[in-house]
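FIELD: query
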Amino acid sequence: MPKTSSDPPNWRRAALNGPTMGTRWSVHLDTDGTTDLAAVEADLAAAVEQVDAQMSPWKEDSDLVRLNRAPVGAWVQVPAQMLEVLTCALDVHMQSAGAFNPCAGALVDAWGFGAARDVPDAQAIRAARAATPRDAGAALEIDLPGGRVRKAVPLQVDLCGIAKGYGVDRMAAVLHRHGVRHALAALDGELRAVGHQASGAAWAVAVESPEAGRRAARGVIELQDLSVATSGDYRRYLTVGDHRLAHTMDAQRCAPVNHAVASVTVLARSCMRADAWATALLVAGPAQGPVLARQMGMDALFLLRGADGLREVGTGRFGAPPGRPG
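FIELD: result
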């Protein structure tokens, strides 16, 4: 078969990566030799570091920590990138009927998953229940033209369920800026495909089997100009006595998620939205999660634990073919 302009003979695969947000970012890209890989790598590292510097709950000088420490009612100037993430977070909060709650930071800390402590604290949990608004949209006011935010009540913002996805979107923006047309950007369990592989094939991404302490693929998704994010109960958790507590917080119950959903994988154009919705659908649970995903017209794959092992429930692209039960 003759070569085409989109498939020149000198494409080669390059891998770039670095540390960020307690994990690593990575990019696999196909280059024809004209890409300045050193410049791309430096700009990718700067992009994810900017997200971490603004939205990390562990960095004492982050914009998020500054917002959380500000008095109730005081306007706080925040960067445009953080405003974008906060706006999306509140939008998903509203559309998910509160399943995604960016104002659950006090609960995250109280249960031992934040910067304050690494084990649950009963007194802190009781206090956090009172400091976690059910309606985040009413509790957190955003002034987009003014580039500022203020809290209407005492609360603690936590963006860990959305910031990594946004970081991947920022990486994709860097790749586009450098003219990269074939790449796969990843940050932990969030990924975004920029175009397809130089060969013309889509990027193949594994769906993990939700097994604690072991990495194994359960299936493969093909991505082209699309993002995927997965939230589950099997990677970050605490063991208290005989109980395993997942790190994802159900702000309506004021406790970690505790149900049959082992993981939720979501496809979306924006990795930020895929990340937030994966968290929201995990919190929504085995009954309401798939209903919500169908209502939103989302491509979502739920892995549910049961007496007979894992069961899949899919919506959209992951739904059962006609005539076959889901």
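FIELD: remark
Residues 1-5, 322-326 have pLDDT under 50 and may be disordered.
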